Amino acid sequence: MSTRSALLTFLLVVPLFAIGIWIGQNINPLPIDASTNASVYDELFRVLFSIGSILFLGFVGLLTYSLFKFRRKPEDKGDGLAIEDNLPLEILWTAIPTIVILFVGLYSYDIYDRMGGMQSLEHAGHNHESMVSKERIWGGIGSGSIGSTKESLNKELFIEVTAMQFAFLFHYPKGDIISGELHVPVGQPISMRMESKDVIHAFWVPEFRIKQDVIPGQPTILNFTPTKAGKYPIICAELCGPYHGGMRSTVVVEEQKEYENWFEKNSKTPITKT
Ligand SMILES: [Cu+2]
After folding, report:
1. Which of 15, 108, 132, 226 could covalently link to 253 via disulfide, CB atoms 3.0 to 4.6 Å apart?
2. Which residues neighbour ligand 1 (ion) by CB within 5 Å?
């Protein structure tokens, strides 16, 4: 490579990286972030979006340049150059994807861990009376509501989720409430035990940046802490039958007072202040 082309490459790559990183950091196509998991997840998303933008602009730029630069001349009827191999180039295009993929893999693992994905799920089941203590939990974002401590674990609001074709049902053992809509107070760590009655469904709230399978016969756990009051869609994210697209519900995140009003209105057992 001549000094001139090395310099030219450098002059093109630097702005390419700058623009890619700028896009990743400043353009946000995600919905609002309404749980403690969201900021952690968004950190990963921004990095992936930056990497994706750099690759996209790099490839599309190179392709567009080549379309014009190397276009066949009208009088040119011959074959293209027979290029055998180029060892430095091959090393380069093996090394770059290897580094990028290893980095993305390790970083994703770290983010998943910070979201509570690597927490012991057996432990997650122990908090909620005796009902789930012996049960094998098959998967989930564990008891790792971010920054959770021993005390906050005890303050978790426990909700049982049942999924079926084509609805979610939420059962609050404390007030024996069964609701088609999920009501949670803002700032309250929530722990959900989820199970399906028929086929595999998935509980997904884009604003919370969490998604978890709901499986028949194999309970899963999903913990989160909502941070912003509002109504957000709950979407079934696993093709579960002909009306899968209509399998939606709403999570209502409300201030403590409003939540208590809702709870008292729907509770079947007298409230025992704890
Ligand atoms: Cu479903």
Report:
1. 226
2. 201, 236, 240, 247
